[in-house]
Input
Amino acid sequence: MKKYLLFLIITFIVFGAQAQIDTIARSFSTTITAYDLKDNLTYIASPSTEGRETGTPGLVRAAEYIASKFGLIGIQQMGGTGTYYQSYKYIRSKSRDVTLFDSLQRYEYLKDFYVQADVRNGLVYKKQVVFMGYGIDAPGFNDYANDTNLTDKIVVLFNDEPYHKGKSLITGNISHSDWYHNTTLKLNRISKYKPAAVIFIDDAFYGKSNEIKRNLVNDATPMLVQSIYEVSFPILYTNLTVASKLLGTDSMKLSRIAKKTTKKHKPIHFASKNRFSIELDRISSVPTSDNVIGYVEGSDLKDEFVVISAHYDHLGMHKGKIYYGADDDGSGTAALIEIAEAFAIAKSAGNGPRRSILFCAFSGEEKGLLGSNFYVSNPRVPLEKTVLDLNIDMIGRVDSTYSALQNPNYVYPIGSTKHSSELKQLLEKCNDDYTKLKLDFKFDVEDKNKFYSRSDHYNFAKNGVPVIFFFTGLHADYHKSTDTIEKINFEKMETIARLVFQVAWKTANQTERLKLDIK
Ligand SMILES: [Zn+2]
Output
């Protein structure tokens, strides 16, 4: 009998305390309201921010708005910085003349090939084209093992790595090796031979070319200054079809090499009889942009951080039209501010989180995830201490699938199954307990749209930090001047922002940090 009583008391203490914490979480999440979200977005997606293109005064005004909001609601600046801004430099360039040609044909810049912003100017005249496989030098797979004559040649190679039945031949499993899309590593290896130029066959360029092309709207893809290649020759990117023509082979042959590898696949190289010329004449500039970053300090576990992120940049103005980006990603930015406020209120009421919460408004996302890329290589808190990134990008609209179902109350969580088996359960529990949205996992990690690699969380995920990307899908106004505020569903945004708050709250307050149990 006594034992039973003790059991009851313990049960009450344990579950009673848990219920109390849950009630607290619910009460602070209700400070996130449709009204306040609209208030934030009314400025962020207004004519005065001129579409928030990275590198423009409109973006600076949006940054000032976020920073002043952070100040008002009591978000702290990172120790010793004295500012919410994290500045970074990137390189941008415009072409005067960029051509790839031989006596018979001329390839079209942006359609047939592209270059990055730091490309070296110059003329490469009538140089022989050679195929160099994957350009990999790894144990068991060495493209450079046999007489490698690359000097003064135009070297064509794949930028990924060889696979057999979904497994990398380099790692022997489904994980990518260090060579996968690592152009820096490949260029460093090749530059010893002093080639005339290097042309990467970029699967992204033919696979999901729109993604690359939207980064090329204003010419070459901008790059962070820290990522500039230390080489003296031109670097181009092209697709399989153009690469085959340059090499004078049929594209089937190249694609067989690329896709139909066997377990014992050996490096394949060949020299073509073709000679091509490349002319590059570009003007470059090195502008600065800012991420806006602040935090709410935790209590007993304050050295560990939960990151909440959203990008505040968009596409700017084109042909006199403002691209408002109310959904992309005004919605995420407005939500970020509201979630930050909810945590700040919780803390000032004496119920702050155990772990610290870092709020990151990134710029440069539309230019190729520049701001978050800079952040992960210059993190304000060590990435090993970063337990989770919850990234919010486009949560204000209802896509055609759910319009047809007449159900606006859904979200596509992406990435939760990648690093930690606990995370998806935690997300589902928060949603069951509070927000009761339809969680639709159809765009999770393995999806042909590759949404998983298309927003800032990807830079965290690549560095082993668990992520969830909150997204409500594409719509007819995506990346158009018609992505405007009056089309935003603020009730829906409120519910999703509250869900993000709950997931952050739970992750920040549980005793054990999320386990990284998925390899
Ligand atoms: Zn976006």
The chain has two domains: 29-76+297-509, 92-284. The chain has a mean pLDDT of 89.
